[in-house]
Amino acid sequence: MGIILSNHLAFWEKFATIELMKKKFSHKIFSYTAIFEPDEKEGGFTVTIPSLPGCISEGDTFEEALRNIKEAASLYIEVMQEKKREIPQEEKGVVIAPIEVTA
């Protein structure tokens, strides 16, 4: 009986692993441009993703701001999926560069 139970558990363990593997591959990866603006007075950074209107976060360090905006974007997309709305896509080839202008 111990062998049958052991085989039965092994089957379910493999089944659960396969199911988890299926779920891992069902997620789509989205790429967005995040704009990090340093806060001169308070320190830290404010971060926005222009392609996701209203998606904004902040952090005391660049690393914290990066983690926070990734979480905010993930939650934003999750809500869009739950509401069955189209998830905004960012056009490829976006380039952000500083420029100087004389007036």
Overall description:
The protein has 103 residues and is α+β, with helices and mostly antiparallel strands. It has a domain at 28-82. The protein is built from 2 helices and 3 strands. Strand 2 and strand 3 form a beta hairpin. The N and C termini lie far apart (87 Å). The model is unreliable at 1-8 (pLDDT under 50).
Distance between the termini: 87 Å
Taking strands numbered 1, 2, ... along the chain, how are they ordered across the largest sheet?
1-2-3
Count of DSSP E strands?
Answer: 3
Question: What's the story with the biggest beta sheet?
Answer: 3 strands, antiparallel
Outline the low-pLDDT stretches.
1-8
Count of alpha and pi helical runs: 2
Gross geometry? globular
Summarize the structure.
The protein has 2 helices and 3 strands. With 103 residues, the chain is an alpha+beta fold. The protein has a domain at 28-82.
Name the features:
103 residues; single chain; alpha+beta; 3-stranded antiparallel β-sheet
